[in-house]
Structures are given as C-alpha cells and as structure tokens.
Amino acid sequence: MSARMGNMKKKDLAGLFIFVAVFVGAAFSQEPKKAAYGVLLDNTGTTFGGCTIVKGLEGSYLSSHGQVISDRINLVYTDTPFNFQDNFSAISLYADKLRAAADKALDEETILVAVLEVYHSA
User: Fold this and answer.
1) Whole-model pTM?
2) What is the model's pLDDT at position 1?
3) I need a labelling partner for 56 at 20 to 30 A (CA). Which of 24, 28, 77, 91 fits?
4) CB under 8 Å to 62, separation ≥6 — which residues?
5) Domain 11-118 has CATH 3.30.70
C-alpha cells in the first residue's frame, strides 16, 4: 500500500477509469488532438501520483446516432486518495469536468469516464 493511502481502509478509495478511443490515420493527424490526448494522459498521472495505461484494447459503443461502433481503445486507470463515499460529489464533478474537457478538445465521441469504489488486497 502506498504512503498516499495512509490510514485509509484499502476498500474505501475511488478508482478513476478512463476509456479513450485510439486515434488512427487522419483522425489523429491534427496536432491539437495529439496535444489534448497527451495532456489527458499526463494530467491523470500527475494529478493522482501515477496511472496505469493499457493500450490497444478492443471495445464497442453506441454512438449518439444509435449505431454500434467497434473501436480500439486505451484504458487509463488511477487510484485517487479520496474516500469514495465521503467524496462522491467532488469525485463525480471531477469526472464530469474531465469528460467535458476531453469532448471539447477532441471533438468526437471518444471518451468514457467511470469512477468506482476499489478494494486493494493486502
């Protein structure tokens, strides 16, 4: 258990999961999108002291137009030092703002942000 978790019970933490579509070809050739994607990954790692990135997963989602779209995705995961129940409103607001900023910067349906209570075994 890391020092940042301190005396908090291991199961009380909030974990932040960010599913990001993998950009290929022309969709990722624009420098602003590359920069926004890099900032998203860097910010997640530095805000909470590190993150895990799993690249090249396969997934599908229902677009806003009702179409099921298959896509390659990256998963970014980080623990937060916050108690899930006690800080639910603040954590939810952070997740909503992260999603809104990513949507604006990337200008397409490319991100899912989820916050879950996590348990770390000893």
Assistant:
1) 0.73
2) 43
3) 91
4) 68, 69
5) yes
